[in-house]
Amino acid sequence: MIGDQTQTTTATSNFSNTSSANSSSNYKYNGLVKVPFFQVLYRDLGSLFSYIQITTPPYSIIHHVMTVFRIFQTIGPCIHFCNFLLWPKDTLAGKTSSWISIFFQIVPADYMGIIRNSACIIFLVISISMSIIVLLCCGYYKKKATMPGFWSSLIYIYYSSIPHILHLPIATCICVTVSEIIFLNTSLSIIEIIVFIVCLVMILVQIFFVTLLNEQTIAFKPQSMMTVTPTTWNFQFYISMEVTIVTAFISQASDDAVLYSIVILLSTVFYGLMTRLPFYKGGFASPFVDAIILSIGVYGVIMNLILTAFTALKRDISLLVIFFMVGSFFVVYIGCPVM
């Protein structure tokens, strides 16, 4: 325990010295060349997140909760809940698939259009507030070379969980709106357009902060949040978002079976790529998670091919098929090796 405190104190002291040096290094070559503002900001944010990683507890409970959620987030888009040829809204199977989507996108698919404006505004309030807090803390740490424990923990917990939860449903809301504009010729007010554009910008900003924090997690806390921070989890998140986005983009395409089939085949490619993640740079740091992700990749390929056939034939899915989909996943998982 004393050794850990000594190590933390030493590391904090080193970062304090680094921060002091950085604060006077906004110029290069004896002041002849000024360092660009964003380069200075990136360096200062890196120093702040490094300090946060050293001084905050590992919060293992978040690690376990986020692991479960991101597994649902990976397999969820495979059901193509926005494909109304497969899941008609007025059928029991369609309603069931809508409520199943809660497990990976928080809001049932049928209610996306109803709550999207409110959801986007809530997302903006939260993300902008946290971005301001990070920038203020960055300036404070640069001057004081220390941070109150509350703010360090708040930043660490938030960027290790909330962006991973909110980005997918917000991106889905925006893509469904774009689909309505393209296929249904709906119109948006100026305020709605501004809100959606700012949402896209804030999603990119949040991804930047998460990526920067992840880099420091790998360096300073290799045993904490392991299933959230490796490069493989970042790829998993991007693949899940790509499948969801392309499906949401054509969600209002009426009965265009050809377009739906093309999108599902594209999703098949994404899930095929996912089967390689457990073998990439050490996988997901957990044999169980490696086996789960490999199973989801194989299962996604198989189910997407089946759903392509249903879509091409314009056959909707019955509730019995849902039970078959759930049962077949466990069969695939049993057949996949534990890494």
Search tags:
mainly alpha, two-stranded antiparallel sheet, 13 helices, 73% helix, 1% strand, disordered N terminus
Description:
- This protein has one domain.
- The longest helix has 33 residues, at 112-144.
- It is mainly α and 339 residues long.
- It has helices at residues 2-23, 37-55, 60-75, 92-100, 102-105, 112-144, 149-159, 162-183, 190-220, 231-249, 257-274, 287-312, 319-335; strands at residues 27-28, 33-34.
- The chain is built from 13 helices and 2 strands; from the N terminus they run H-E-E-H-H-H-H-H-H-H-H-H-H-H-H.
- Helix 2 packs across helix 6 and helix 12 packs antiparallel against helix 13.
- It has a two-stranded antiparallel ribbon.
- 73% of the residues lie in helices and 1% in strands.
- Residues 1-24 are annotated as: Disordered.
- The chain crosses the membrane at residues 121-141, 162-184, 190-213, 233-251, 257-279, 291-311, 317-336.
Topology (elements, then pairings):
Layout lengths: L1 H22 L3 E2 L4 E2 L2 H19 L4 H16 L16 H9 L1 H4 L6 H33 L4 H11 L2 H22 L6 H31 L10 H19 L7 H18 L12 H26 L6 H17 L4
Antiparallel strand pairs: 1-2
Shape: globular
The averaged pLDDT comes out at 76
Sheet with the most strands, sense and barrel status = 2 strands, antiparallel
The fraction of residues in strands falls at under 5%
> What's the helix count?
13
Low-confidence stretches: 1-24, 223-228
* Helical percentage: over 70%
- Summing up helix and strand content along with how strands pair, one would put the structural category as mainly alpha
Strand order of the largest sheet: 1-2
Radius of gyration: 23 Å
Our count of domains comes out at: 1
How many runs of DSSP E, i.e. beta strands? 2
Strand and helix order? HEEHHHHHHHHHHHH
Terminal CA distance reads: 34 Å
